[in-house]
Specification:
This protein is an alpha/beta fold. It folds into two domains: 138 residues, Carbonic anhydrase (Beta-carbonic Anhydrase, Chain A, 3-Layer(aba) Sandwich), CATH 3.40.1050; 35 residues, no CATH class. It is 36% helix and 18% strand. Strands 2-1-3-4-5 form a five-stranded mixed sheet. Strand 4 and strand 5 form a beta hairpin. The chain is globular, with a radius of gyration of 18 Å. It starts with a helix and ends with a strand.
């Protein structure tokens, strides 16, 4: 069972004090927040490609590095980082070959239904629009940057940039500077 494997590993990790190199303060040293996709290919690659080390930046992730609107829950985390954790720059980093480009709301709704969900279960959601993917990675980065730059609660001096990363090589391409 995966949980048991993780707990056994963790016990060994603690006994050997392997956590020591990862200790850092709560405030990001570079006053940077990186908003990116939850794609597993980016987990270590993005840090390395940006030259970031533990404690340099805050990371916020969701499916596609996508913002839906001003009240998106991801923006809540970003605003907290800006006001309470001394962040003053945001990098929105999407990536090429994003699976969210292949996610369609109607198909997601069908998957929910095939798993046993009923109208009663989904009555509080506009499932097909809420679980909709993105039209393209570049357009999505541009949209997320636009939402952040025009957000009424974002401090006016916050710098917001948009990048795309190649998940195979780590190459960063500026989208919005």
């Amino acid at each position: 069972m995966l949980l048991n494997e993780i707990l056994v590993y963790n016990k060994n990790f603690l006994e050997k004090k392997e956590y020591m190199p990862y200790q850092s303060g709560k405030v990001a040293q570079k006053q940077l927040l990186v908003f990116t996709c939850m794609d597993t290919r980016l987990t270590e690659l993005l840090h390395k490609a940006m030259g970031l080390h533990g404690g340099d930046a805050k990371f916020v992730k969701n499916a596609g590095a996508s913002l839906i609107g001003y009240q998106d829950d991801t923006i809540r985390s970003i605003l907290i980082a800006l006001y309470a954790l001394s962040i003053n720059q945001i990098f929105v980093v999407g990536h090429y070959d994003c699976a969210m480009e292949r996610v369609h709301g109607e198909e997601m709704e069908a998957m929910l239904r095939s798993s046993g969900m009923t109208d009663k279960d989904t009555k509080d959601f506009s499932v097909s629009s809420w679980l909709q993917g993105i039209s393209g990675a570049k357009e999505n980065v541009e949209n997320s940057v636009h939402i952040l730059r025009t957000h009424p609660l974002l401090p006016k001096d916050t710098k917001v940039y948009g990048l795309l990363i190649d998940p195979a090589t780590g190459r960063l391409d500026p989208v919005v500077t």
